[in-house]
Amino acid sequence: MKHKNVFFAVGFLSSISMAAVTGTASFSGVAPKAEVIKMSGDPNCAKANEGKKVMKEDVVVNANKTLANVFVYVKEGVKKESVPAAPTTPVKFEQSGCRYIPHVIGVRVGQPFQIINSDAVMHNVHSMAKQNPGFNMGMATKGQSIEKKFTKPETMVKMKCDVHGWMTANVGVLDHPYFAVTDSQGAFTIDGLPDGDYTVEAIHEKLGTKTAKIKVAGGIAKTDFAF
């Protein structure tokens, strides 16, 4: 199903040399009907979510007509000399309640990417990477954890579970820290961006991508995208 109308706004506040880039991803038009995930094919997954309605996350329109799970990042303009080293603290990616949590996540090139199975259920993590080496690993034990690292930038890497077809997620891999994911209010913040001219891109797994040119110069700017 195609959705014709999506609106995305970018604004930013900056100090003399650094900025916090902020904005929202908004949706206009008729929101798709939220779809319940049917887990009856695996009794363990069904039991883990007994009494709950677990919804698909490929298109999440918030109550305020904004979009969650939009990956927003600086696509062009980052100077290598301004980029801090990748953190050694791992980004955690969890299998819980027979879902991938979070559904959209960002990680730096070279940063540890920790995959955790919090379910007493057999899962596998299948990376569909194209720029990075793919992997496909079974995780049968509750509490099992494995660590991977991506070696190249890639937006986006699709993750899926071959055991449970409804389990999918998307990972943005970047060689800088200037990225964020919109939340339950459709908002995002990208901290610490030096003054300069940039191209910012917003990626939604179903609704496509949009880009904006912004100038970080200690002021305030806003750019709107409409579909």
Question: In words, what does this structure look like?
Answer:
- By secondary structure, the protein is mainly β.
- It folds into two domains: 1-82 and 178-227, Immunoglobulin-like; 84-175, Sandwich (Immunoglobulin-like).
- The chain contains one helix and 17 strands.
- The protein has one helix at 43-48, and strands at 6-14, 18-27, 71-76, 91-96, 99-101, 104-108, 113-117, 123-127, 135-139, 145-148, 154-160, 168-174, 179-181, 187-194, 196-204, 208-216, 221-226.
- The strands form four sheets. A five-stranded mixed sheet has the order 6-12-11-8-9, with no helix packed on it.
- The longest helix has 6 residues, at 43-48.
- The two termini are 14 Å apart.
- Residues 1-16 have low confidence and may be disordered.
Write the layout of secondary structure elements.
Elements: E1 6-14, E2 18-27, H1 43-48, E3 71-76, E4 91-96, E5 99-101, E6 104-108, E7 113-117, E8 123-127, E9 135-139, E10 145-148, E11 154-160, E12 168-174, E13 179-181, E14 187-194, E15 196-204, E16 208-216, E17 221-226
Parallel strand pairs: 4-7, 6-12
Antiparallel strand pairs: 1-2, 1-17, 2-14, 3-13, 3-15, 4-5, 7-10, 8-9, 8-11, 11-12, 15-16
For the biggest sheet, the summary is:
5 strands, mixed
Oligomer: single chain
* Strand arrangement across the biggest beta sheet: 6-12-11-8-9
Helix content: under 10%
Q: What is the molecular shape? A: globular
* N- and C-termini, Cα separation: 14 Å
CATH class of the largest domain: Mainly Beta
The radius of gyration is 18 Å
> The CATH topology of the largest domain is what?
Immunoglobulin-like
SS field, number of helical segments: 1
| Broad structural category | mainly beta
Mean pLDDT: 87
Residue windows where pLDDT falls under 50 for at least 5 positions: 1-16
> How much strand content do the residues show?
over 45%
The overall strand count is 17
- Give the domain tally: 2
**What CATH architecture label of the largest domain applies?**
Sandwich
